[in-house]
Amino acid sequence: MTTDELRDAYLDFFASKGCERRASDVLVPRDDPTVLFTPAGMNQFKREFMGLGDPNFKRATTCQKCIRTGDIENVGKTGRHMTFFEMLGNFSFGDYFKREAIHWAWEFLTNTLKIPADRLTITVYLDDDEAYDIWHNEVKIPANRITRMGEDDNFWPAGAPTHGPNGVCGPCSEIFYHYDDGREVEIWNLVFTQFNRVGPNQLEPLPSKNIDTGMGLERAASCLQGVKTNFETDIFVPLVQAVSEVLGKRYDADSLDGIRIRRAADHARALTFTIFENVRPGPEKQGYVVRRLLRRAVLDAYRMGRREPYLFEIIPVVADVMKRPYPELLESVPRIQTVVREEEERFLRNLENGIKLMDDVFRKTEAAGSDTISGDDAFSLHATYGIPVEIVESLGAERDLKIDREGFEAHLAEHGRISRGSTEAADVFATGPLDALKQEHHEGTSFLGYETTEAEGTVIGILAQGKLVENEVAGGTAPVALVLDRSPFYGESGGQVGDIGTIEGDGFRFRVEDTQRDHGFILHIGHVEDGTISVNARATARVDAARREAIRRAHSATHVLHYALHTHLGKHAQQAGSKVEPDRLRFDFSNPEAVGRDRLKRIEETVNDRILLGESIRWRTMPLEDARKLGAMALFGEKYPDVVRVVEMGEFSRELCGGTHLDSVGQIGLFKIVGEESVSAGTRRISALTGKAAYDYIRQEEEALGAVSAALKVPPQQVAQRVEALLEEIKTLKKQAAQRREAPKVSADELLNQAKEVGGAKVVALAVPGVAAGELRQLIDVARRKAESGLAALLITEADGKVILAAGLTPDLVDRGLHAGNWLKQVAPVVGGGGGGKADFAQAGGKKPDQIPQAIETALQAAREALGG
To answer: Which of 225, 505, 521, 719 is the most buried (most CB within 10 A)?
Structure first.
């Protein structure tokens, strides 16, 4: 039996027992802060286990996608540990209990799967005589094949009676499969939640008992297929083979490289499913887990000699082997590959430095005469460079070094406050005020907003400061949430913002400033403007209709934009999120590069062409499977109910969507793209306007263009050419100005030509405008070389209102007793300055530019006196 056949057989079997077949929940559960990823099949049914769900929904069966990383160090090392796996489950919410759960499990294993009874053994909780008797007396399992175990092995949560936490709990019964070589593998756990723990070993019976069972799909498949490990099943063999081929390494199951290859196969599967749900590698929470998995796989390959990205090449293989239960993966392969490859490249760039730093840490530790790597250093390598601590530990051991594990764990725990979520069992069944309201109003709030923006309803709940209250009076500053039994207000979801408006009744008026959804209720958030609102009051709820219409325009435009993106970019341009506000939208989509100006123009034209056609917009509800068969697009990472709403536009767009829409595409009016940018690796964002906002934007652009046109004195259609001509003219002028600045103001030859004969020497005393201070010395040096002997030069220039002087003598004049520094001392005071220097060269400054001509005369006179001329 293949893994796919096993999955179907299980779900079909329990459906035949009256269990409602439910789809897998998403990997990142909504509205559940207690876990980062869905760890078990029961998570999506928490409300049902608490008695807060639909009273008519009593039995369920699922195949749940799960991720657990608590045993990540064992992945690849053992045959059964994985980070991503599928959990087959059947559940009862106050309906069937131990007898049915045990009998059905045995029936499925021995009759449906045809597993020989002598290959199966059972464990039960130490004090659970009821379960033992059912197994022994009714199912006829011999006593020597049933083992009683303590609370650490056969109770949920483990050790709960003694150690807690308080709350719902119960005994377990586990089923083990035995191989011919004596190995045993737990394949199924039946949890009987029948108690409420109120203190140490104080277990009170629950009025409503539940069943939560879980069978590991991959483990069961390995048993049925007669292989020793999960990695030898039909699902994993292609993945292991693909990793081996890409890395160019022969797969040897018992070698260190074999462990690494298995680990890469597992991690590639986990990455495919998490990134499909738009969980990207990052520094916190789910992103931290994804980044850690990817880096471990890349580091394993690096240790095998691979220096280039490779993991992205495994993604198509994962999508192919998992396509039967999860066909949606196939269209997302390019998007997932882009994210994986870019993260691989980023990590590989850092890895070389990281390994060098690790060697530096080893040398520093040894130089200090220690054999222990500090917790600070180990955590730095782990957090900054992504090098797992076990790698540091194993490489350090080669040099007789160990790690300060206590220090490292302390850093890790602190980092865990922001990078990992709580998984405390005590938080699993946390309740709030809306849970209490749900017990009275199981149906929640009926949404009427698809048909109307005004409706009558009854106030069934008032939430103030986190509590349910009976009434609320005007004048309060803190926002209040009203809950009605029926409402036309749309609660924020699917990217569409919540409605605003008013709720009025006899003696009160409430201003709705935002609308949210929670627990099946529509929460109208705002302030009481007048009077007093009480529970059970009748009210009229009115949505701001003009604002809603603007939101409808923008929301319908996102669907048309999605179609246009697929037309011009390809099917890989899947929606990755959106924000829909009155006449403006933000649309995130998968694309490896910037869209480009020309393609953006074509995308905008396609949307507006569709608007001009004015095709009808219609919607209908249908089973999820029927919607998928119709080709309705779904937002990846979103959990959809069994019955979904499909929005269709003409014949070109069909999407699953719960938002409010127009009656025809033509009502969008106008669509204008105003921005395109990167959101993250492989994800782009288009910002656009519709309706009135688009019209106002274009009008503002027209006015701006008109102003420029008037200033340039050309028609609007010639503005671009005129601006280009002006820019070219400016460029030419700048070039000419630069050339003038670069041209020498005076040459050494010109200086020598203006020299005066004094006492057998040549004297130059000149003002040279526009010459920088450094150029003065350069001019004097060149003139001295050309003259070879008998030259005395003193040059003056002005810069920013200051005077700069420089004087230089050829060596023969210095031998005659002349001194450049003394020369300047005589001249500089004339321009209000001073200075001096060596005999052959000196510099000075001043602050009276108007005295430069006088300074030149003084310089010539001083030279005559010194030379006797």
So the answer is: 521
